[in-house]
Design goal:
alpha/beta; Nucleotidyltransferase, domain 5; 2 domains; five-stranded mixed beta sheet; 19% strand
Length: 347
C-alpha cells in the first residue's frame, strides 16, 4: 500500500510517502524561526504557513519517491490534537486529494502517531506502555494495538516541554529552549539547587510541572537573577547548575511515574516518543533504571513528521478503521480519545 501522510497540527508542515514500512520520501518545513520572535507558536501564522507550503511539499515528496498522485492508495492526515486553524489546513487538503483521487482517507491521532512510528525500525510487541512527552503533552498510555490505546496518566497543567520553554524564556534563552537547557544540564551540578519533584509523593500517575516552573522563578527572583524583575540572568556555572537542577527534577518525576505505571499495568515494554524524547538526560535516566525495556524513537521521528502519520494511517486502515469525508478535526486530546472510543464501540 502506498500512503501519503500529512501533518499540520502545530508549527511544522510535514509530509511523507510510505510503501508499507518503507519510507520513500519525507519533507518538513519548520516555522521555528518565525515563531521564535513571539516566544511561542502563533496559531494564525502557523496556519498561513501551512497553507502556503503544503502543496509544494507534497509535490516534492512525490517527486523524490518517484510516484504520482494517481499511484496513492491511502491519504492519512493528522486530525488532532493541535491548533484548530492549523489542523483545518491539512485536513481540507487531504480531503480534497482523497475525493479527487477516489482513495480512502484516515484521520489519525497525532499523539498516537508519535508511538506508532517505533514499529518502522523495530516492531515492539503489544501490549506496551507508551509515554508521549513533548511541548504539549506528557501522557501515559496502555497500548494494546494501533487503534487500542487507554489513557492512564497525564499532566494536569504544563507539559514537560512547555516547562522547558517557559524556564528558558525566564532567563532569556532562545525559543524553543529544551535542547539548549539539555545541553547546559550536561555540564552542571544537578544537586546545586533544591527544586521540588511535583506530585512525586502522590500515589497516582498524574504529572504537574507548573509548580516546578514557579519554583525556578522564585529561586531566580531571590537570587536577583530574574530579568523581568530587573535582575541579571545567570551565566556560566550558575546557568549550567540551574539547567542541571531543573532537568533533574523533570527527569526524576517522569521516570518515577512511568516506571510506576509499567508495574501497575504489568507491562514489560515502554515506547517513548515526542520532542522531549530526544532529551539526553531523560534517555540516560531510563537506560540506567530498573524499569521496563525502553524503546526510544529515532530522534528524526521524535518531533512532528509525516512519517508517523502515514505509518499510523496504514496500521489503522489495516485494522478496519474507515473515515468519511465529513470527518472533523478535534483539537483537544480528551475529546479526540472519547470520539475514537465511541467510533470503535459502534464498529
Amino acid at each position: 500500500m502506498l500512503c501519503l501522510g500529512i501533518e499540520t497540527s502545530c508549527d511544522e508542515t510535514a509530509v511523507a510517502v510510505l510503501r508499507g514500512r518503507q519510507v520513500l520520501a519525507e519533507e518538513v518545513a519548520s516555522q521555528v524561526a518565525e515563531h521564535a520572535t513571539f516566544g511561542g507558536v502563533v496559531p494564525e501564522l502557523a496556519s498561513r504557513r501551512h497553507l502556503e507550503g503544503l502543496d509544494g511539499l507534497v509535490t516534492a515528496a512525490l517527486g523524490s519517491a518517484g510516484v504520482g498522485l494517481v499511484d496513492l492508495d491511502l491519504i492519512a492526515v493528522t486530525r488532532g490534537p493541535g491548533l484548530l486553524v492549523a489542523l483545518l489546513v491539512g485536513m481540507q487538503y487531504a480531503k480534497g486529494l482523497a475525493a479527487g483521487l477516489g482513495v480512502p482517507l484516515i484521520g489519525v491521532n497525532h499523539v498516537t502517531a508519535h508511538l506508532e512510528a517505533v514499529h518502522l525500525d523495530a516492531p515492539v510487541a503489544y501490549p506496551y506502555l507508551g509515554l508521549v512527552v513533548s511541548g504539549g503533552h506528557t501522557h501515559l498510555f496502555r497500548v494494546a494495538g494501533s487503534n487500542a490505546l487507554t489513557l492512564i496518566g497525564h499532566t494536569v497543567d504544563d507539559a514537560a516541554g512547555e516547562a522547558y520553554d517557559k524556564v528558558g524564556k525566564m532567563i532569556g534563552l532562545p525559543y524553543p529552549s529544551g535542547a539548549v537547557l539539555d545541553g547546559l544540564a550536561q555540564e552542571g551540578d544537578p544537586a546545586a539547587i533544591a527544586l521540588p519533584r511535583p506530585m512525586l509523593d502522590r500515589d497516582n500517575l498524574l504529572f504537574s510541572f507548573s509548580g516546578l516552573k514557579t519554583a525556578v522563578r522564585t529561586y531566580l527572583s531571590r537570587a536577583g537573577q530574574l530579568p523581568e524583575s530587573g535582575g541579571s540572568a545567570p551565566t556560566g556555572a550558575a546557568l549550567r547548575d540551574l539547567a542541571a537542577s531543573f532537568q533533574a527534577a523533570v527527569v526524576e518525576t517522569i521516570v518515577t511515574k512511568t516506571v510506576r505505571a509499567a508495574r501497575r499495568e504489568g507491562l514489560e515494554r515502554l515506547v517513548v516518543g515526542g520532542g522531549v524524547a530526544c532529551n539526553a538526560g531523560l534517555r540516560a535516566a531510563f537506560a540506567a533504571g530498573d524499569g521496563p525495556a525502553v524503546h526510544f524513537l529515532p530522534p528524526r521521528y521524535c518531533t512532528d513528521n509525516g512519517v508517523m502519520v502515514a505509518a499510523l494511517g496504514m496500521a489503522q486502515y489495516a485494522a478496519g478503521v474507515r473515515h468519511d469525508l465529513d470527518l472533523a478535526p478535534v483539537p483537544g486530546l480528551a475529546a479526540l480519545l472519547e470520539d475514537e472510543a465511541a467510533t470503535a464501540a459502534v464498529s
